[in-house]
Every structure is written in C-alpha cells, then in structure tokens.
Amino acid sequence: MPDLATPLIAWYRGAARDLPWRRPVFGAWGILVSEFMLQQTPVARVIPLLEAWLDRWPTPAALAADPPAEAVRQWANLGYPRRALWLHRAAAEIRDRHDGVVPRDVEALLALTGIGDYTARAVAVFAYGDRHPVVDTNTRRVLARALEGRSQPAPPSKRDLAAMAGLLPADDVDAAIVNAAAMELGALVCTARTPRCDACPIAHICAWRAAGYPDTGDARRKQARYEGSDRQARGAILRALRESAAHELRQDAVASDWPDAAQRDRALFTLIADGLVEASDGFLRLPRGASA
DNA sequence: CAGTCGTGGTG
DNA sequence: TCACCAAGACT
C-alpha cells in the first residue's frame, strides 16, 4: 500500500480553501449544520445560507424551540428540503438526549435523524478531532483512481470505510487532515469531469495514471430527469408555501398552473406524508410541529 | 439493494 | 443546448 498520507498532508497545508467551517472556533453545532447543508449541495451555495442559519439559531436548542416550518422556510432553495426537517428533528433530539450538546460519539451521532455514515464521522473528526475514516463522494473517487485504477468509483459501500481507515496515520490530528485532504483533493484536483492530474500531489502513485487513464465505465446510479418530474412538482408546491407571506395557501390555489393535475396531487400527497406540508380545512401550511 | 428526493451552475 | 454533477440519507 503506497503512502498517501504524507503527500496529502503536505499538499493540504498549501492548497486547502479557507472555508467557514474550517475556522478553529466554528463549533460542533456549526459543523453539524454545515454537513447537513453540504449533503448533495455545492459549497458555494451553502456558505451564505449557513451563516444566516447560525445567526438565527446559534444552538440546537434555539432551532428546536421554533416550529419546523421556520426551518423549512430558512432552508430556502438549498434543495432536498427534507434535510431541513431532519436537521430540526436532530436539534430536538440533541436537546432532549444530550443536554443540548452535539454528541461526540459516532454511535450517538448515527442515532440522530438525518445523520448517516458520512455526517456522523465528519462531525466526530472535524468538530471533535477524533480518529475515524470520513468517506464522501470525493474521497471515493480519489481512492478509486489512486488505488484501483478506475475512472469512477463503485457505488458507496461499507468497504469504503475500511479502505479509508487503512490509510489514516496513527496520530489523531494527522488523521483528520488526511480525511479532509482526500475530500479536498477530490473537490479541487481529482474532479469527476476534468481532473487536473498535472497538479496532483499523488500522481506518482496513482494506479489510474499508471494505467493510462482508462475509461473503466461508471457504475454510479444515473440521476433521473428533473424536468417534468414529481420532484419538480414538489419543489413548485413547497416554493409557493415558503414564499407565502400569510404562511398558508388555499389547497386549490397551490401550483394551480401545474400542467399535470394528477402529478401535482401526487406530489402534494408525498409532501404531506414526508411531514413537509400540513393540510387542514382546505388550506396548506408548512409544518407547525406537535407542541403549541 | 435500488429508488427517491431539489436546485442551480457548468463543460 | 442539455446531460452531468454536487461534503448523502432514508425506505
């Protein structure tokens, strides 16, 4: 196994972006919120909304004290609005189970709503400095190329965690940097479309480069078309509710111009099932929560 | 395991 | 122009 850690650490020192959540004082809650927002949403779109979020809700308890509707509205156009609901639930769980303190233990983090293998370890490592493998889509691509000689990674797997764990130095601080550096390399250099191999600090040990950059195929799931999809219909309904000054709309007026009425109704049904929308007496609202 | 879930920038 | 892509998680 080639040593990736040493060149990655050296490269990261000089090339890492100055991102808000990397500031030493950012705090575990800020890290947690940033990780929720970064799930499938690009960094540049997250930064302004993250800062607004933390200005409004500087602690988990502050967020949990407001109704989920406020979280969904503040989420704005980040996409996948279930994440706003889940972040609100996680905040309440942190208040109720952990005295309002973001837990440090990976198992406790995994038990929170909306937190999976990536986010749990990202918080434990980047907020608390513990030694765990953190594997995101960037890291999987870097390892697929450098170690397996593939052009694109296989679908996510539990094996990814073990593979990354095997690359981490013994020291906690160094291990955290290697985790961050692998992600950063994938984001800046070892990119999905046009990798900048001339600027890569591990090009000399890259199996994909040694093999002549073969196209090994792409086993990733392809995204469904968005235009005309149920997701677009859901987005239109939720946008109308977010932007409603009265915080409610007549059900027969929401997305009334949507071309496919059956699709609109189906989208609304799933939004209600997801807890993103509440319906009563002919009106739709964002969720106000169980307690008054 | 495979399907589902937003939104906007970009090559 | 339009398909691809983006610090995933849940069912």
Automatic annotation (TrEMBL):
- Reactions performed catalytically: Hydrolyzes free adenine bases from 7,8-dihydro-8-oxoguanine:adenine mismatched double-stranded DNA, leaving an apurinic site
SMART domains for this protein: ENDO3c (SM00478), FES (SM00525)
Has UniProt tagged this entry with the keyword Transmembrane?
no
Q: Which residues form the HhH-GPD domain?
A: 37-188
- Write one Gene Ontology MF term: 4 iron, 4 sulfur cluster binding
- The protein's enzyme class: hydrolase
Could you tell me the EC number(s) of this protein? 3.2.2.31
Listed SUPFAM superfamilies: DNA-glycosylase
Q: Which UniProt keywords apply?
A: 4Fe-4S, DNA damage, DNA repair, Glycosidase, Hydrolase, Iron, Iron-sulfur, Metal-binding
Per its Swiss-Prot or TrEMBL entry, what cofactor is needed?
[4Fe-4S] cluster
Q: Which GO terms describe its biological process?
A: base-excision repair; mismatch repair
- InterPro entries named among the record's database cross-references: DNA_glycosylase (IPR011257), Endonuclease3_FeS-loop_motif (IPR003651), HhH-GPD_domain (IPR003265), HhH_base_excis_C (IPR023170), HhH_motif (IPR000445), MIG/MutY (IPR044298)
Q: Which family does it belong to?
A: Belongs to the Nth/MutY family.
Protein name, as recorded? Adenine DNA glycosylase
Species name: Microbacterium lacticum
Taxonomy of the source species: Bacteria, Bacillati, Actinomycetota, Actinomycetes, Micrococcales
